[in-house]
Specification:
Strand content: 5-15%
Structural class: alpha/beta
Strand order of the largest sheet: 2-1-3-4
CATH architecture of the largest domain: 3-Layer(aba) Sandwich
Bound molecules: zinc ion
Oligomer: single chain
Shape: globular
Radius of gyration: 22 Å
CATH topology of the largest domain: Rossmann fold
Number of domains: 2
Mean pLDDT: 92
CATH superfamily of the largest domain: Nitrogenase molybdenum iron protein domain
Length: about 300
């Protein structure tokens, strides 16, 4: 009797302990890569919700009521920014009426705002397609930039949840160590890719190519966000590229056509975590990108 009573007390005690230690912060992540990063940095101190999955195009998301409800109960929202979510996130923020996650608050973080951006247009002209005035938003595909974003996200967590500051500091330090070692490994594996000429479907690989020293010689889309046309594809035939890079979300007809015309191999690369098998976290994402680029697998 006494024994079971003690056990009961112990169980209640550890239950109370785990309730205080866990899930203080509710995180809303616009894209799966930031949800994964938030889990990495917060551990059991946060519940993380991913607003979109790898099978969705984050340029075009419906501001559904379920997303509004999730944002309403969040303490921290992390999005790509630089215009990527212009079509849906401002509307979610207006409707959720949650002052914690409005622009300018510590509870709203734009990843692209934390790093140097490429392809900032000299002048903004809608005729140039789906061009973002703040530069190319697809910053998740350069691991060096991901590390800067991780540090910014961790510091926001420390601001919002100061009671767990030591926990967040320890986690971001551990992540940085593992991540820097992984970057070294990836760079060594990808050495032979330097200078390779690629044609991309959408310009979402800009930061990846910049990191690896590869060169974009053309895009299947005549302008960002504008579907490929036959006359534009015909112009690409003379480019002598080493590879055509597409994501699993892209229509495969244009790349297949160009491959048939030129013999240039097509490589399907995961654009975020969960896009293909083996990319359940950020380490797996870059492992798989480098593996596919170096072996030509994933056609
Ligand atoms: Zn884009």
């Amino acid at each position: 009797m006494l024994k079971s009573f003690t056990r009961l007390l112990f169980t209640l005690g550890s239950l109370a302990l785990s309730m205080t230690a866990q899930a203080n912060v509710q995180i809303f992540a616009c894209e799966p890569e930031w949800a994964t990063l938030a889990k990495e940095l917060a551990g059991d101190r946060a519940n993380t919700f991913a607003a979109t999955h790898a099978g969705q195009d984050p340029h075009h998301i419906q501001a559904r009521p379920s997303l509004i409800a999730k944002l309403r109960s969040s303490d921290l929202a992390i999005c790509t920014g630089a215009g990527l979510e212009t079509g849906w996130m401002p509307m979610l923020q207006r409707r959720a009426r949650n002052p914690k996650v409005m622009p300018g608050e510590p509870g709203y973080l734009e990843a692209a705002g934390q790093v140097e951006r490429l392809e900032i247009p000299a002048a903004l002209d809608r005729a140039e397609g789906d061009v973002h005035g703040d530069g190319n938003p697809h910053v998740q595909l350069d691991p060096r930039r991901v590390l800067e974003i991780a540090k910014a996200l961790s510091s926001r967590l420390q601001t919002i949840d100061p009671a767990n500051k030591a926990h967040y500091l320890q986690r971001v330090e551990a992540f940085s160590r593992r991540w820097l070692a992984a970057i070294q490994r990836w760079e060594a594996q990808a050495h032979a890719l330097k200078g390779k000429r690629v044609i991309v479907h959408h310009r979402e690989w800009t930061y990846l190519l910049d990191w690896l020293g590869m060169q974009r010689v053309g895009s299947l889309e005549p302008k960002p966000g504008i579907p490929p046309t036959l006359s534009h594809l015909a112009d690409l035939k003379e480019l002598q590229a080493d590879r055509i890079i597409v994501s699993p979300l892209n229509d495969d007809k244009p790349s297949t056509w160009l491959h048939e015309q030129t013999g240039t191999d097509v490589v399907v690369l995961p654009q975020t975590v969960g896009a293909v098998k083996g990319t359940e976290d950020l380490f797996g994402l870059f492992d798989e990108i480098i593996r596919r680029l170096t072996t030509g697998d994933g056609a």
